[in-house]
Amino acid sequence: MLIVHHLGKSQSERIVWLCEELGLTYELKHYVRDPVTSLAPPELVALHPLGTAPVISDGELLLAESGAIMEYIIAKYGGGRLVLGPDHPDFVDYIFWWHYANGNFQPNMGRNMFVRRLQLPSDNPIAARLNSRLVSAFALIEGRLGDVPFLAGKDFTAADIMTVFSLTTMRYFMPFELTPYPNILAYLQRIAGREAYQRAMQKGDPGMPLLLA
Asked: Helix or strand or coil: residue 17?
């Protein structure tokens, strides 16, 4: 039995969403953040040496890292769904946006989050540079979504599942105004209309307002 160990308001929402898109049978185990530190509780930390979410177990397998988990689930249970192969005309776009999510975009969000928490003055050169890089990261997505409905192209893929967390739930930790990005906002409405996304968010984070605007 595939078990998804899910920490509320975390990148593990990707795994719940993926399972829903694929129509998989899985068990969802919820973990709640410490109300003071916002960190994962001890029982989740004890599961894996990294002490972070997501984590899945599948028989004797225990696996962390959302990208690795997604690749594993897609390879084992996906049946070719939500991925584009090398013969597809959008293959290069698919692999770029898949890796952009956690290779560039989410780290940009994380670095800016920590800098903001340091409360550096707005004219601090490091803070200014990091903010500039974040604006550029959003601008790249905005430009892409002005040309195509989904990041890989015309088809919804796992690259979208990888990316949406940073555009939505991550903004609870690193607020970012999306008003200047109408293509991203329209994209998030398309995502909001997906039944699998609705089910995943209701199961994983019931009652949490979704930051889709």
From this structure: helix
Of 121, 180, 112, whose CA–CA distance to 146 is shortest? 180
Find the length of the chain: 213
What is the Cβ-side half-sphere exposure of residue 34, based on CA atoms within 13 angstroms? Answer: 10
What distance in Å separates the CA atoms of residue 8 and residue 169, rounded to the nearest whole number?
A: 10
Q: What is the DSSP letter of 124?
A: -
State the architecture of 2-82 in CATH terms: 3-Layer(aba) Sandwich (3.40)
Which of these, 159, 63, 64, 186, lies nearest to 104 by C-alpha position? 159
Fold annotation for 91-194: Glutathione S-transferase Yfyf (Class Pi); Chain A, domain 2 (1.20.1050)
Which residues, in sequence order, are bridge partners of residue 31?
7
3-state secondary structure of 64: strand
Q: At residue 41, does pLDDT exceed 90?
A: no
Q: 51-84: per-residue pLDDT in tens?
A: 788 999 999 999 999 999 999 999 999 999 999 9
% pLDDT > 90, the chain = 82
Answer yes or no: are the C-beta atoms of 2 and 22 closer than 8 Å. Answer: no
CA atoms within 13 A on the CB side of 94: 15
Reported as a single tens digit per residue, the pLDDT across 137-163 is 999 999 999 999 999 999 999 999 999
Per-domain residue ranges for the chain? 2-82, 91-194
The 3-state DSSP class for residue 42 equals: helix
